[in-house]
Amino acid sequence: MENINSLQDQKSSHYILHKANTRGHADHGWLESYHTFSFANYQNNDRMNFGVLRVLNDDRVNQGMGFGKHPHDNMEIISIPLEGDLEHQDSMGNTTVIKEGDIQIMSAGTGIFHSEKNKNHNQFVKFLQIWVYPNKKNVTPRYDQISLDLKDRRNKLQQILSPNSNDQGVWIHQDAWFHIGRFDKAFSSSYQLKKAGNGIYAFVLKGDFTIGEIKLNERDGLGIWNTDSIKVIANSDEAEILIMEVPMEL
């Protein structure tokens, strides 16, 4: 396998760059959402998914507003709050609130209903909504959330999700691993893929980064495959990045 450190010497089929301003955009008044991949009214045949990563929505919900109760099935749904408090209710009897540092997972399986609402009336809530195709269909629906120590992502990649219930972070029905890192300027970190044949989708939450020779700015996404490791360099202070390792085969 070739290494991302020589990315510009590789064939272009080994990576795909999604600049922030090329994402789909929807403004519903109460909700503003940017779609990395096709979703709802944004349909782009060239941006349907990255391997089993199907949805990456960057959502901002107005004060006191939210998504009413709606159904899902056979999808792993991950929510990562970035600002504010998100109130969750579902047909499994869960009523809870998630905030920055928390990770929420729903295995929709045979079918669930849920709602997500901005709990506060004095600030926005911002969060990432991520859908991953599962490796098992029609599982018993499941909900979980955990709170992570934000200090554990300072100048390192903190694991927030994996396939293993006894590992760090939440777990999902898929051979996927997610990490978040918050770096000082000029700090670098390497990431070694956990499973051969997987790819990486990197999404910049804050600041600027370089991966290989590719420069990334806030909310840019970079999908990489046919590599076994990457090197990430922060080009600004308090730069934050989400690294999602996922299978490339649906």
UniProtKB/TrEMBL annotation:
**Pfam families registered for this protein in UniProt:** Pirin, Pirin_C_2
Identify the residues that the record assigns to the Quercetin 2,3-dioxygenase C-terminal cupin domain, covering every copy.
160-246
Record's cofactor remark: Binds 1 Fe cation per subunit.
Question: Which superkingdom does the taxonomy of this entry point to?
Answer: Bacteria
- The reply on keyword Iron is yes
Q: Which InterPro entries match?
A: Pirin, Pirin_N_dom, Quercetinase_C, RmlC-like_jellyroll, RmlC_Cupin_sf
**What Gene Ontology terms describe what this protein does at the molecular function level?**
metal ion binding
Mind telling me which Gene3D superfamilies this protein's record contains?
A: Jelly Rolls
- The positions annotated for binding Fe cation are 70, 72, 114, 116
- Report the cofactors: Fe cation
Identify the species of origin: Flavobacterium segetis
Segments spanning the bilayer are none
Designated name of the protein: Pirin family protein
Family the UniProt entry places it in: Belongs to the pirin family.
